[in-house]
Amino acid sequence: MDKTGFDQLVAQLRPKMYRFALAFVKRHDEAEDVAQDVSLNLWRRRASLSSLRSVEAYAMSAVKNRCLDYLRSMPGKTDELTASLHPAHEQTPLAAVEQADMVAQVGKLVEGLPVQQQMAIRLRDVEGYELSEIAEILSMNEGAVRANLSRARQKIRDQLFKQQQLWMNRK
Amino acid sequence: MDEQKVKALLDRYFDGATSLAEEQALRRFFAGGHVPAALKPYSPLFAFYAGEKAVTCPAPAGAGRALRLRWWMAAAAIAAAIAIPLTIGLLAPTQDAYTHYLNGKRVYDREVAMQLADHQLQILAASMQRAKAGVETFEKLHDASQHLEQLDKIRLMLRQVDDMISVATTTTTDKITH
Fold first, then answer.
1. Which of B52, B142, B148 has the most A C-beta neighbours within 10 Å, making it the best mutation to test the interface with A?
2. Which domains does chain A possess?
3. Pair B42, B73 in one domain
């Protein structure tokens, strides 16, 4: 791959890598570093990129691994890797929930999902990847991706509706 | 898109059975201003994903950012490259054990020698900073990182040499003392 082609590839990938990383590392500078380092690694192995089935899936998989490493390195984050969904309303004072914007609540609900489900839902509903691409990025089969996606969407919907109901009851 | 069709699509969406095109249609529907009351509870879901998709990526930080840590690694390697000859000059037994020279200057003690080394390091650091500012492409960044990896190897080698000299000097000093 020549330099022009590589620049175009990175220009297309960088926003996706950054957004995805930011959702997990939560810090802009860390997310930038992840995107930068993965771009640099792609450049280092540019000669063999054509042998990959999907360079984009390879890059996003590298970003995913960096995010998992980051989460593992953070004290208190390990449990979140396998944690079940903790409804935000159990942790948030009811008064705050009443005033909270429902869109922001969805964000909190997404963050409460197990990491694999978060990754699946972000790759699909934010970045718009096909199930086959998500399967490659997350190193799982398409059936597992679909199951994770379905469970994640249903959990968010159910919790959101509960919160909306609580909010309506308090009005 | 009528309400019944949207409901049917939503059912499939929550089962993970919709295509990307169908999901795009759902997003467009909920982004529009005519969402029936019965479907409004779903609106925040699609509004959240649309908002996340709109998150913009800062302008590329350039090579400087990725190079920052590696620059200090290079500085450490250069520091080692300076410190080792100094150490050799200060500690290695010579015919005149109290006279040492660094860049033509007579050095009487370790403190002064280290100050001189610090000064040289600052000059080198400034040079590295200028080099960093000039690096803009991945190609240059890649080349720079390769050089820095080599410098790091040199630093490790010099550290080993330093250790060997320290051991040899201690032994020699002990012999002279006794």
1. B52
2. 1-81 (no CATH), 82-171 (1.10.10.10)
3. no
Is B117 within a domain? yes
**How many Å apart are CA A113 and CA A117, to the nearest integer?**
6
User: Do the chains contact at B141 and A126, CB–CB below 8 Å?
Assistant: no
- What would the pLDDT profile of B44-76 be if each residue is shown by its tens digit? 999 999 989 888 877 765 544 444 455 555 566
**B107 three-class SS:** strand
CA B39 – CA B35 distance, rounded (Å) = 6
* Contact assignment for A15 to B57 by CB distance below 8 Å: yes
Q: Is A123 on the interface with B (CB under 8 A)?
A: no
Same domain, B10 and B68: no
Is B143 domain-assigned? yes
What is the ipTM, given to two decimal places?
A: 0.76
- Contact at CB, B66 and A164, closer than 8 angstroms: no
Mapping DSSP to helix (H, G, I), strand (E, B) and coil, where does residue B59 land?
coil
Burial A124-161 (b: 16+ CB within 10 A, else e): bbbbebbbebbbbbbeeeeebbbbbbbbbbebbbebbe
- Å between B114 CA and nearest CA of chain A: 35
Average pLDDT over residues B33-42: 89
Return the percentage of chain A with pLDDT > 90, whole number: 52
Domain that holds residue B96: 63-177
| Nearest residue, CB atoms, B66 vs list A23, A40, A149 | A40
Would the CB atoms of B48 and A107 count as touching at under 8 Å? yes
Q: Does residue A105 sit at the B interface (CB-CB below 8 Å)?
A: yes
pTM comes to 0.61
